[in-house]
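Why should sequence recovery work at all? Because a backbone constrains its sequence more than one might expect. Tight turns favour small or flexible residues, buried strands favour hydrophobic ones, and helices have their own preferences. The token representation captures these environments compactly. In the example below, the structure is given first.
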């Protein structure tokens, strides 16, 4: 079996959340916040890491150009129905990989230990909700659990902008459209996705990342334009729209 496939299988078997692949070290996984060395594997060298890179990129010219020009690449990988979010970067001019294993199912909102007031915020007619926190603190799980809760309990159109798409939601009581952001993807950039959302009649817009001033300004403009829109008659309820980072 190919090296990276064996590593992924072992990570799944040990219920890991992340895989770290670094030159001069054996593969390392994170299990309940603890870093664990996979001693059954050999120490990784430059050749092995470039083989892993080739496996991930699969000859995609645009991905390779992005990696070489930007010195980093955020992408996704699927192996035997196992989905991973992959970050490729460099250390000493050798590829370094951090892979997040994406669970097939989301935990119920009630099990996350989040105050009920957070859930109630998703039922407000307008507003802006930011989900923030340090790395590996559960932002993505929290955000997607909120989306799933809305999907099960409210009749809304939910539009997500993600890089890459992690959890794949299925429309239930709500209708969900998930767009991947990036060159050659569903939408070129987060700011383009936010601007176009005004014409997509969504009730809830989910922005996976807000990392620059332009995207934040576009998000705020979107919220304000919906709040004060003249297109909704005064006698009707306003279109309900919220934005979640």
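From this structural description, the recovered sequence reads:
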């Amino acid at each position: 079996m190919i090296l990276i496939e064996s590593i992924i299988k072992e990570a799944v078997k040990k219920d890991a959340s992340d895989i770290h692949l670094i030159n001069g070290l054996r593969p390392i996984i994170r299990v309940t916040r603890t870093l664990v060395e996979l001693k059954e594997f050999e120490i990784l060298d430059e050749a092995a890491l470039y083989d892993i890179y080739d496996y991930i990129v699969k000859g995609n010219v645009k991905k390779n150009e992005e990696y070489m020009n930007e010195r980093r690449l955020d992408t996704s990988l699927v192996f035997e129905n196992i989905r991973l979010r992959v970050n490729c970067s460099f250390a000493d001019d050798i590829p370094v990989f951090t892979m997040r294993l994406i669970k097939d199912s989301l935990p119920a909102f009630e099990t996350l230990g989040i105050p009920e007031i957070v859930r109630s915020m998703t039922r407000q007619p307008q507003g802006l909700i930011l989900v923030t926190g340090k790395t590996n603190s559960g932002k993505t799980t929290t955000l997607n659990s909120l989306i799933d809760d809305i999907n099960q309990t409210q009749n809304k159109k939910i539009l997500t902008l993600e890089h890459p798409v992690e959890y794949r939601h299925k429309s239930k009581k709500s209708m969900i459209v998930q767009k991947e952001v990036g060159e050659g993807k569903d939408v070129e950039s987060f700011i383009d996705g936010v601007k176009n959302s005004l014409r997509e009649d969504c009730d809830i817009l989910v922005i996976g990342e807000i990392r620059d001033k332009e995207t934040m300004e576009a998000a705020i403009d979107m919220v304000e334009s919906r709040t004060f829109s003249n297109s909704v008659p005064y006698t009707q309820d306003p279109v309900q729209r919220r934005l979640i980072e």
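A few observations help interpret the result. The radius of gyration is 20 Å.
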